[in-house]
Input
Amino acid sequence: VQLVESGGGLVQPGGSLRLSCAASGFTFDDHALTWVRQAPGKGLEWVSAISWNGDSTYYAESIKGRFTISRDNAKNTVLLQMNSLKPEDTAVYYCAARHRTKVADLYEYDYWGQGTQVTVSS
Output
């Protein structure tokens, strides 16, 4: 089982990045996908989620209107388009998967990626 994030990097405030998470080794379209981030010296912060079929999306208030989550079940990929980035968006971004039938705590997932660093700075 693998979740591999990519697309992170250094960007100026107001800029954009698109994160990608490629999944393998499990039934992708049976799982909801989530992006979670961790800023330096802070705990995990839930960012966004998308249902197993893509019909429902959810966003944290801190990024609503700036980030967009999407998924392509044919390519086993989930994306996070991040626009109007702010310095406070600096964090390691993780994608995580949870089976669509599972009821669990906010940060309890079946699978996690290794993370990709996003740095927003001038």
About this structure: The chain has a mean pLDDT of 96. The chain is about 0% helix and 50% strand. The longest strand covers residues 91-99. The radius of gyration is 13 Å.
